[in-house]
Amino acid sequence: MEPGHNIDVGERIKALREDKRISLRLLAKRSGVSANALSLIERGKTSPTVTTLLAVARAFSVPVHDFFSNGNKGKNFVVHRKGDSLQAGAIEAMATDLKEQNLNPLFLRLGPSDTFRKDLVFHPGDEFVYCLSGEVECEIDSDRVRLSPGDAVTFKAEIPHRIQGVSRSGSDILVVFEVGRLG
User: Is the model's pLDDT at 1 over the cut of 50?
Assistant: First the structure.
């Protein structure tokens, strides 16, 4: 993804849904995500969480990184260049279009007290969280792990977890999750 190249995830979800001739209600039923939430995502009124993206990807039987892809499948490496600064609560996919991709790196900007995941979530695979700036608290099952710049935590993503920004100035974090093949 080059600077200034913005991917509209909601637009991608809507296009895939329409291509497969699936109604919003049917996608909601298959994914477990409310039709209202899906509609807001498709119209760009809200950003989906990783959990929501995973649920929608499973409903379509596609890998989650397809929502961020520019269609150039099969590269052996992907370069991500720093783009425009993101607003608090923003998610930026850092690698798409990698041949047989299993890792999904995301850059997150959390404002003061923003919660990346409102509820505890879980998904297949592993997850890695690296604090770039500010401070975040990772709730992993019943444990709370506070991360400062340079700190990281890796865990099995099947364990219920969520991430919250705890710095007054906001926090930037790198989250890399791996999910096995869908289907």
Answer: no
Phi-psi region of 4 (alpha: psi -120 to 50; beta: other; left: phi over 0): left
| 29 and 99 fall within a common domain | no
* 83 is a domain residue: no
Residue 81 lies in a domain: no
Please tell me whether residue 38 adopts helix, strand or coil conformation: helix
Provide the domain limits for residue 20. Answer: 9-67
Task: Give the tens place of pLDDT for each residue, 19-76.
Answer: 889 999 999 999 999 999 999 999 988 878 777 888 898 898 887 767 766 655 556 5
> Listing from the earlier edge strand, what are the strands of the sheet with 161-165?
143-147, 136-140, 161-165
